Amino acid sequence: MNVTLLIVPLSLLLTIALFAAVRSQRAPIVSLEDFQRRWNAVNLQALLNLTDQREERYLRENLSRSDFKMIQRKRLAVTWEYLSRVGANARLMIKAGQAIQHSAHGEQSLEARALVADSMRLRTAVLQAQFSVAARLVFPQIHSPITSGLEHYSVMREHIEQAFAERRIHAVVKLG
Hints:
Elements: H1 2-23, H2 32-38, H3 44-50, H4 53-62, H5 65-103, H6 107-138, H7 153-165, H8 170-175
Helix pairs in contact: 1-6, 5-6, 5-7, 6-7
């Protein structure tokens, strides 16, 4: 019975990961406007609040057990949605970084390579966080910090937008 409880969320997570991999094969990023149009807005403060251990402890202490379970499931569902958006944005940052990398030279190319690597690490952290959320749906008593992958999220987006704005991807724009 316990093995089944582990296999079901894991298979669901793998299915979602495969679906995400197929979806990530969209058209390349060709401009700053294209990047901004595809960007999924994420309220990081709300996400951090949803994953705050102190907030969860407060709710657990001040709500009835049944109310807490209901609220916690809703919080986990919203957390999953936010993480899905962050994951989509991480994939978008990977594509944009690769576009910048292929059209830039020297130091700009190295910066773009670092951006791609950071975005890939963020994507991995999001997948781990989603696995953690799936596990918490099955085993609510598990505590897991999710915030580690979100620290550089806003900075990475600003870096990509700056690279586009400075026309570091002139060759990519011609591909569109």
